[in-house]
Amino acid sequence: MSMAKSLADFSSTHDIIQKYPREQRYTLAILQDIQRKYSYIPKESLIILSKYLDTPLSKLYSMATFYKALSLKPKGDNIIKICDGTACHIRSSMVIIDEIAKLIHIKPGETTEDGRFSLETVNCLGSCAIAPVIVINETYYGKVTPAMIREILGGYGGLTDGGK
Ligand code: FES
After folding, report:
1. Which ligand 1 atom lies nearest to the CA of residue 89?
2. Dist. CA 118–CA 107, nearest whole Å
3. Tell me: the pLDDT tens digits for 31-50?
4. What does CATH list as the number for 78-154?
């Protein structure tokens, strides 16, 4: 991860930012581009943007916190998406979410402390026939039961307690 990186290492951030005029109304669009690029909003990128737009860093932080599509934390190595569309919901997707929370101690929107998993809920994944569905990275798992979760997650490098 980017702990010791200097601002100069964030050339992609510079590239993104410079596509936009120095006007505050582009702040959200720029933040969305940064999110797309890094899959989260690095602190360094916010500092660069704050200088470019002459906007207080605190304001950028609150925007990044306010908008659900933006995240200030890096995502885990493996992204678990659990479908909470109608078909999956009535087939107990909540029970699956609870089981994941029990095993790796994260709720939707969170990442394990060891950085191995992030959990997200999504709307219909287009596979309602095999509800409830989860997708890990690009792999679909259908008709998932709580009993299957331990084994499924174990396939992604073994289960830990999520770093807690
Ligand atoms: S509602 Fe979950 S795949 Fe359609």
Report:
1. 1
2. 9
3. 999 999 988 899 999 999 99
4. 3.40.30.10
Q: Which atom of ligand 1 is nearest to the CA of 125?
A: 3
Average pLDDT, the chain: 90
Q: pLDDT tens-digit profile of 111-146? A: 998 989 999 999 999 999 999 999 999 999 999 999
Any idea which architecture 10-66 has in CATH? Answer: Orthogonal Bundle (1.10)
Say how many CA atoms lie within 13 Å of 21 toward its Cβ. Answer: 3
pTM: 0.67
Say how many Å lie between the CA of residue 88 and the centre of ligand 1: 5
Tell which one of 133, 134, 144 to mutate to probe ligand 1, the residue whose CB is within 8 A of the most ligand atoms. Answer: 133
Where along the chain do its domains lie? 10-66, 78-154
- Separation of 99 CA from ligand 1 center, angstroms? 19
Residues with Cβ within 6 A of ligand 1? 83, 85-88, 124-128, 131, 133
- pLDDT, one tens digit per residue, over 62-73 is 999 999 889 888
